[in-house]
Here is the input.
Amino acid sequence: MTDRQIFSVPGISCEHCERAIKEEVTPLGGVRSVDVDIEGKVVAVAGDSLDTTAILAAIAEAGYEATAL
Here is the structure.
């Protein structure tokens, strides 16, 4: 079953932000896709058995604060 989780990431402002977040989140177990909406300042992660805590940590590792929605 595919899960989809949405995260608010207010610090997103450019393509560099998008790339940094994708590089950290994509390798996580179960992640199939990472969509970053720069204008909406949200990140949508789809995959199987997603670990919210690990995703939040990966976004933090990329340098951004995030909140699960």
Summary: The chain has a mean pLDDT of 96. Strands lie at 2-8, 31-37, 42-48, 67-68. The domain at 2-68 is CATH 3.30.70.100 (Alpha-Beta Plaits). Helices lie at 15-25, 52-61.
